[in-house]
Amino acid sequence: MNLSLALWLTQDAVVNGAVYALLALALIVVYTVTRVIFVPQGEFISFAALSLATLQNGKVPGTVHLLIATGLVVAVLDGWRMAKTRDFSRLPRLVLFNIALPLAVAALAWWSASRPTDVWLQVLVTLGIVIPFGSMIYRLAYQPLASASILVLLIVSVAVHYMMVGLGLVFFGGEGLRASIFPGFNFDVGILTISLQSIGIVLSSVVLMVVLWLYFGYTVYGKALRATAMNRIGSRLVGISTEFSGKLSFTLAALIGAISGILIAPITTVYYDTGFLIALKGFVGAIIGGMGSYPIAAVGSLLVGFLESYSSFWASSFKESIIFTLIIPVLLWRSLGKHRIEEEEEE
Amino acid sequence: MSATLEVEKLAVSYDKVEALHGASLRVDKGSIVTVIGPNGAGKTTMLAAMMGLLPSRGAIVYGGRDISMMPVEARVDEGLCLVPERRELFSEMSVEDNLLLGAFSRIRRGAGKIDGDIEEIFTRFPRLKERRRQLAGTLSGGERQMLALGRALMAKPQLLMLDEPSLGLAPRIVRDIFHVIASLRSSGVSILLVEQNARAALQVADYGYVLELGEVVLEGPAASLVTNPRVAETYLGLAGAAD
């Protein structure tokens, strides 16, 4: 291996590692706040990447219809609950977020499909399609089970994952798609060729991480999410409801998934089931951080990125096995150390 | 006087074991009511049920409405607050952030600036002001209790329920805490105080209940409970009977 190859692999590792770190953050936020191991995180990536590519091909993606349908189901369920309790104070909100917003996104998607060159509009529509799914999925699949055990929640996650993968196949077919956001422009730094694409990914990830750090550290709602992760009873006693924190954390997860999907769409061909494998690598990073420490998880995700890119060079057929084998020593080391996760489970 | 809280035949079961068998009590507006009783009498269970942390049977009428089906967060919105025995602070957050989140239910409903309210808590508990940037987990027991009280006050409660505020604290700090509880009465907050330290509790309270084995066995104005021979013997010790 010569230096230029090593640098090239490193670039690849950093780019992938940055995306895994974002996903690890989403998984940790969802887990610490709601105790849900969010298996379908990767489907947000597939949905976003494929919706973006479909829009660039001048068609309206099927996810738009799913968004309208899901919004209607949520509206009917919550509307029924309101009718039963005769409390209609939140009706405008309900209609706005579950009926008006999906319809607006659909209109925008239809307009955007006729303008295949308007990249930023496509990105906006893609975000508009994917992000609302976060709170809707929480409402439909998890909210009725908010006090169930971690195992039950995990089983629900697996079910949601299979449903979303299946729907992805229906909407986008088995063909892989690729999108482009940044112009394909490369420049040379010494012996290394850097693509504008990879700089875009790393920069976007860093910006998103800083924004999330500010959000969690300096806003009341961000602090409320952290508080829920720290002490569930304490947070309920100050009026942070499980519904509120659940919907907010799932929305963040959907936002991170959507952005990750948009970022990777230009560098990999995305299939309806690609997202799962990518999120699984983010999950390895999250496990390294003990599903609790974000800085360790970010470093772990970078490690996963390096392991992936170097093993794909030396032993490409064992690439995935090597990455997932990493979990075993990590779990051993974790189980010898603090018993953090077990304690949280006992609550 | 009108009742802030009226509890009728409240019963709570853990699986098949009933821990509270139809306890009834009443807290008048602006008064301090105490529930005393030995370990395991069901005092903490009763508070948890009133707050909605545990499912219960019976009626919990608060501000003229039955709230027994409301979730915890809705009860907080209505001005019902609990300072639990374990404090349940956000230990990896600063003292200031703990107080800020205490006002979360008000902020979500559109309360504007709450900096003034935090300053008010700091005047009540100057120790917390000195430690405002410190993590809640690094505080001493007394400071943690002050923070738990302060966090609950940030919600501007109408009824404050305190579970064993003196537990595990040094006598001097217990005095401080009870001083604060007594001073809250003048600001119009009704208080339901659960205590094992019966002497201190009956000193600040207007009315008292004695809970034993999940049942109210005795009730009356605090002054008369202090002189009741049974209370004096069991909860105040012989010295109390001689007073």
Description:
The complex is a heterodimer of chains A (347) and B (243). Chain A is mainly alpha-helical and 347 residues long. Chain A has a single domain (3-179, 193-336), classed as Orthogonal Bundle (ABC transporter involved in vitamin B12 uptake, BtuC). Helices cover 76% and strands 2% of the residues of chain A. Chain A has helices at residues 3-34, 41-56, 63-85, 91-113, 119-142, 150-172, 196-218, 220-230, 232-237, 242-264, 274-288, 294-314, 319-325, 327-336, 340-346, and strands at residues 186-189, 192-195. In chain A, strands 1-2 form a two-stranded antiparallel sheet. Chain A is globular, with a radius of gyration of 20 Å. Chain B is 41% helix and 27% strand. Chain B has 2 domains: 1-79 and 157-243, 3-Layer(aba) Sandwich (Rossmann fold); 88-154, no CATH class. The interface between A and B is medium-sized, with 17 and 30 residues.
